[in-house]
Amino acid sequence: xxxxxxIKAGLADCRNAWVETLEALAAEDxxxxxxxxxxxxxxxxxxxxxxxxDRLINVGIAEQxxxxxxxxxxxxxxxxxxxxxxxxxxxxSLEQVKADVAYAGFNVKLVxxxxxxxxxxxxxxHHSIEDFAWLRVLxxxxxxxxxxxxxxxxxxxxxxxxxGPVYLRLSRMPVPDLDLPGRKFTPGKAEVVRKxxxxxxxxxxxxxxxxxxxxxxxxxxxxxxxxLNMATINPIDVEAILAAARETGAIVTVExxxxxxxxxxxxAEITAGDCPVPVExxxxxxxxxxxxxxxxxxxxxxxxxxxxxxVRKVLARVTK
Length: 320
Description:
With 320 residues, this protein is an alpha/beta fold. Helices cover 39% and strands 18% of the residues. It is built from 12 helices and 12 strands. It has helices spanning 14-28, 46-51, 63-75, 86-91, 94-103, 131-136, 149-161, 208-219, 238-248, 263-274, 293-299, 304-316; strands spanning 32-36, 56-58, 79-85, 109-113, 142-144, 166-169, 191-194, 199-203, 225-229, 232-234, 251-258, 279-284. The strands form 2 sheets. It has a 7-stranded mixed β-sheet, with helices on both faces. It has a 5-stranded mixed β-sheet with strand order 7-9-8-11-12, with helices on both faces. Helix 10 links the parallel strand 11 (251-258) and strand 12. The two termini are 23 Å apart.
């Protein structure tokens, strides 16, 4: 029996939801400041700068300094949102993120822009596919990859209220909003996008709507596919993962990131220890070629067809 994928028509840039929400929060709370590395435009913070010129700090192309300044601001009672391209925010300043933010436990909000392979043709230096693996071991940092504009807005609101370090992973690729009634954003909890009993697809960020579409296609073939939006990579929803393993017997993970150490790695660790089932990980195997974002998604199976093929592959490994 066919079911319509729970996706709204039209595409939205999650960065618009991010800045609109941040400006609204800043208007109500003067502690909120933005810190950038000469990335006002790419972070879409032009409007924020005009409204709050004294609350945007541009350190220039100096990512380590940017994170250090944010830590100092947090120590002084401010709520800094550090916005920069994910590849530079997590790569160039990883030591400061580790020592000044995670270890110190400062109330810094790291906002990684244009994550994954959004920079496409600029190549591996500008791709950010390692950030999940790097940050997941820094356990104090809540790591969130919103699936759509609605979830982005909710994540920004939550981050502003939460006392502690947060990493928000945003893309510049427009995505559709999920059409799920009564949605509630709860960090650390998976969102059920589709119910199913034959196999589970666990996705995050820009791949969630693709997983939902694949489940819709597979339902026409008689497969019942559960789809989970695992927006929070750390802390991850262990209970939902183990329930998927027990109840469906096979899992496919989908992420715009490396298959090593991120969402797929976390799911494999959890299932291997408590409920071993076949796990097929979709993502990037390592450095990927220069090419458009769309081509890279297709080439590495981050597509409806690719996810469908991974589902069939993992089901073939299930011992009946």
